[in-house]
Write a structure and sequence with these properties.
- The protein has 251 residues and is α+β, with helices and mostly antiparallel strands.
- Among the domains are: 1-48; 141-239.
- The protein has eight helices and ten strands.
- The protein has helices spanning 35-45, 76-79, 83-92, 102-115, 141-150, 195-198, 209-213, 215-231, and strands at residues 2-3, 10-11, 17-23, 27-33, 124-127, 136-139, 154-165, 171-182, 189-194, 240-241.
- A hairpin with a 6-residue loop joins strand 8 (171-182) and strand 9.
- Helix 5 runs parallel beside helix 8.
- The radius of gyration is 25 Å and the shape is elongated.
Length: 251
Amino acid sequence: MYPCAGCGNLVPESLTELVYVHDRLSGFRARRMEPDCFERARDEAWPLPSTSVESKGDSPSDSNGTPIRRLPKIDPRSRQDSAEDRVEILRSAGRIPSDATAKEIAFGLEVALRLGLDPWLGQVKFLRFAPADKIHAFVGIDGMRALAERSGKYDGREIEVEIIKGPDGTENPVGARCRVYRKDWSRPLVEEVRFVEAVRRRGDGQPTRAWTDMPITMLRKAVEERALRAAFPVQLSGVYGEEEGPGGVSR
């Protein structure tokens, strides 16, 4: 039996809906609600659209006599997926581990809220370094740029890539340097990375597909992630860049 988060009554788990309730003191918490309370709360959060046209008879029309189409009826159950459905969508999209517990999901939602990033847009993901490890936040380069810009102190960046030509004339990156400028700093922060250190590899030791197809782009991305984390430690504290993830998040 579970206490309903809406009315407080004890109801069987099989007759409840899983929801994630947020408050300022405790953040996101997994709770269960009986169907009536769940639908009532959903109706209050997502009210049905309505039309201001007064229907007269069977065929409403405007002042010019032009027929007006009635709004289709919307099934309340089809307006919004349940919390469990939304969690499954995030799992299938790789935003959270498939084996994440309710507490881990609540933790991830709270971290995303505090960072102001949207897991649905891929700005932040939650992964494990090892099967038994806890989940960690991995922020994409777009999310890092958004946090830096939101600080009001970001003043741009410059990236240089060192390239050598192979015997067959192909261009191979060997290193990259990123300078991040802040409006409140007199000098830029400089971060360097070597290709052999940054490249993500599969289990057989070969570079992942992204690093094989776009080595220069991926190296630029890796060095920019490190530079932004170093230049904005308050905004990016406790998070990892995508390319620091297990096997590289961008495979």
